[in-house]
Amino acid sequence: MTSEVALPQPYLLFLGDTTEPGYAKTAFGLRDWAGERCVGEYAIEGATVTTGLPHLTPEQAVASGAKAIVIGVANAGGFIPPTWWPALVRAMEAGLDVVSGMHARLRDIDVLREAAHRLGRRLIDVREPPAHLPIATGKPRTGKRLLTLGTDCALGKKYTALALTRAMRARGVDATFRATGQTGILIAGGGIPMDAVVADFAAGAAEMLSPDAAERHWDVIEGQGSLFHPAYAGVSLALLHGSQPDVIVVCHEPGRERVLGHPGYALPSIEDTIEFALRLGARTNPAIRCAGVALNTSRLDAGAATRLIAAQSARLGLPVADPMRGGAALERLVDACLS
To answer: For residue 158, what is the domain's CATH number?
Structure first.
């Protein structure tokens, strides 16, 4: 069983003073996949990132029906800086609960804990793994599994998993999105925050996340990090071994050459990522295969994206698509996943 999260909705998305769009992936994910639950965004001085939602103060958000402010940032280290505290207190004073997916716990910050107690507000941390996680067994499980892997962090693994789940369901396939990070959990209402799990239990958590299932059922598992990442490769490997995927889809952002937040490291190639993932994944599922590649072409216009997708598919000999653009390329990728 995965942890289920009962959250007060709708949300006001808090962007803090963020200047790096890649760190605001929680806000963007909620905007794109749970937009009906988001009334607007709120930021403090210094922020340059926006979701494009209405800019609202906490008081205006409450008047619009908001029940909680969600920290929409996933910065390196997952900390909640003191510069954010007054804004979060203001939100509580306006009548909002606070929801966070950061590594830092809201309740461990005296100012926030005291304000919540004084005002009768809730502090909700979704980055809490279930209790009593097992050590991985490595035993095969029934059902089918797909895992998204990436050449880096924050480039589309969650979006790809969500889009593939939606496309499979549109074909009548019994498919479930399995969330492994705070944003996915906020979207799905359940999951396991893999990067908050003690290392010895991480592969076991991945097994728990995608248990035995019906023969035709697909679990589509949200990937984390990158097997080549200098900081986060451990969680990626645990997911790969524990989920025992039958199929992987490799995600990449064209034009990104250096690891996000670690510019001293070059990104691996798509080919190296596929080869490495298949070699490591075969340890727990010898039948693992790569169905294709998902490109994040959000920085390209439609024509350039179409040409790049076609060129990369011809070069790699695999289906390539931008899942957010859909179309025939995505259908070919889904065909390859299900074949």
So the answer is: 3.40.50.300
Q: What domain count does the chain have? A: 2
Between strands 97-100 and 38-43, the pairing is unpaired
Strands 68-71 and 11-16: parallel
- CA 18-273-178 angle, to 5 degrees, is 65
Over residues 252-283, the pLDDT tens digits come to 999 999 998 899 999 999 999 999 999 999 99
**220 closest CA partner among 139, 326, 334:** 334
Question: Tokens for 4?
Answer: 């289920």
pTM for this model (two decimals): 0.89
Q: Residue 264 is part of which domain span?
A: 144-338
Residue type, 229: H
Classify each residue of 294-319 as buried b or exposed e, where b means 16 or more C-beta atoms within 10 Å of its C-beta: bbbbeebeeeebbebbeebbeebebb
> Bridge-partner residues for 250, per DSSP?
149, 293
Tally of CB atoms within 10 A around 21: 15
Q: Which residues contact 41 (CB under 8 A, 6 or more apart)?
A: 12, 13, 14, 15, 27, 50, 51, 53, 54, 55, 56, 72
pLDDT in tens, 114-136: 999 999 999 999 999 999 999 99
Q: CB burial class (10 A; 0-12, 13-18, 19+) of residue 16?
A: buried
Do 153 and 228 lie in one domain? The reply is: yes
Task: Return the sign of the alpha-carbon dihedral for residues 130, 131, 134, 135.
Answer: positive
Encode 135-168: b = buried (16+ Cβ within 10 Å), e = exposed.
ebeeeebebbbbbbbbbbbbbbbbbbbbbbbebb
Task: Indicate the SS3 state at residue 324.
Answer: coil
Nearest partner of 197 among 180, 211, 221, 178, judged by Cα: 180
